[in-house]
Amino acid sequence: MMTRKLKSIALAGFFLAGLQIQAQDKITYEDHVLPILRNACLKCHNPDKMRADLDLSTYNALMKGGGGGEVVAGGDADGSFLYQVITHAEEPTMPPNGKLSDKEIEVFKKWIVGGLLETT
What we know:
Structural class: mainly alpha
Shape: globular
């Protein structure tokens, strides 16, 4: 009887720990993507300049896309134009003066695959 209770408690603990890890793994626009955009993209892709008719300064603006249409497809990083240009798989490569770090690119990939969450 005591063994069954311990197993139940242990199982519940593992389940709750797993939920906490999943919550921490969620990549959001506000917490993870926007800081990278501020550093590497917003000089040219903001409401005032809007290169390629693309504003990346807010979640809604990014979701709207640019002159060529949508730039991200939820769940499909490889099919997202934004991901293709930051990995330099498509022209024009972005940012134009160098490439984002592998870690920054991974943030974008996880965000897109994770469903393009705005906030937690």
